Amino acid sequence: MQGEHSSKQYDMDLETIRSKVLLMGGLVENQFQDAVSSFKSGNIAQAEQVIKVDQDVNRLEVSLDDACSHLIVKRQPAANDLRTVMATIKVIIDLERIGDEATKIARSAKSITERGVTTINHYEIIRVMASSAGNMLHDALDAFARLDGKQAIQLIAKDEVVNHEFRSIMRNLITFMMEDPRTISCALDTLWVAKAIERIGDHAKNIAEYVIYIVEGKDIRHTDYVASQLEDRTTN
Amino acid sequence: MQGEHSSKQYDMDLETIRSKVLLMGGLVENQFQDAVSSFKSGNIAQAEQVIKVDQDVNRLEVSLDDACSHLIVKRQPAANDLRTVMATIKVIIDLERIGDEATKIARSAKSITERGVTTINHYEIIRVMASSAGNMLHDALDAFARLDGKQAIQLIAKDEVVNHEFRSIMRNLITFMMEDPRTISCALDTLWVAKAIERIGDHAKNIAEYVIYIVEGKDIRHTDYVASQLEDRTTN
């Protein structure tokens, strides 16, 4: 049913959407980096900028979502093409949520700075985890840009590392709080930041799963597909 | 372009999907109630059942998502009809996440029971908030079932109440922890439960926003649409 002309138009429209999604991805990646940086430095202006940028991210979500719906109605894509659009719609949702989590980190940065007394080395506690999740996010956007299923599989496996780091941070913070109740406020702010970083890892994993859905045509959510793929590579 | 036959088929297919989404909604609503109940009673078997049911919820997510894509490819809906399918796809995502949050509550219930010593009245602390969020979820599913935009608007306004209750719980728990460090483990479990409940309120709000999108054709995410609607009703 699709003529060559219509199919070409479809490809062009889809490419426009994809490049805007990558723009949105760049925005939330910067939001995350800046939020972590403000948590380190206590730079309130930087934290407030992260919170402000979230409005742009929200606007991009709504307009990109709308563009995807228009594409479907106008070009009536076949099953294969539709898969890419549907996955893109979900990537957009996850990117918006990453923006929300970055905003939470920025809020904690403000709160910890405004309280004035830091009773624990709050940035050092989350440093490694923030770097792991940042790498996951970067790789997820890269895998989406290049439609690289292998890279997507690799990064999904890293989510367990981030989750492990989160649990270890939680145990650390509990120890601090028990030893010295004066650390409780600061430790809780740090705990929320760690939680937000853990969620960003989850969202990066979701994006990678959508990349695999686009490339392989497999919905691998809630399956052990990644483990089996990694195993194949080790044994072969 | 759509013949009457095709349009009727579309309506029937959509109705099948909608009734399965409501089935999924019923499952996660029960998951949430049972999770809270196990947090109250310390019934580990009940908590484990909540965790087990989550696999059914996950399977429903994947199969319903697939059914929506098939519907679009097969029936090529016009803009108005597509809006309903797209919103339904997003409702499914939120329902699955509610299942995840209920599972987290069940895990905390297990953890607090297995530790054996409860140093605070953990259920009493979250009781009111759990009831508020449970009502929001119930109303969201009801609004989706009856496509009731007014009910959706009412319940979105309640999200602020749940958020307020969360902040008040957090302050309470901090006080407990500072006064007696032996409460810290128990207080943190309770804090995670409160956080999961707050997230369930957010997801119920999202579902209500999608109902409004279906009924009114307006994407009201990140806008003050609800406030303006409630104001209209007060002043008129």
From TrEMBL, chains A, B:
Residues annotated as domain PhoU: 22-108, 126-211
Protein's name according to its UniProt entry: Phosphate-specific transport system accessory protein PhoU
Source organism of this protein record: Herminiimonas arsenicoxydans
GO cellular component, one term: cytoplasm
Subcellular location: Cytoplasm
Gene Ontology biological-process entries: intracellular phosphate ion homeostasis; negative regulation of phosphate metabolic process; phosphate ion transport
Keywords assigned by UniProt, alphabetized: Cytoplasm, Phosphate transport, Transport
Quaternary organization: Homodimer.
Pfam families named in the record: PhoU
Domain of life: Bacteria
Protein task: Plays a role in the regulation of phosphate uptake.
Keyword Cytoplasm: yes
Stored InterPro entries: PhoU, PhoU-like_sf, PhoU_dom
Gene3D superfamilies: Phosphate transport system protein phou homolog 2, domain 2
Similarity field: Belongs to the PhoU family.
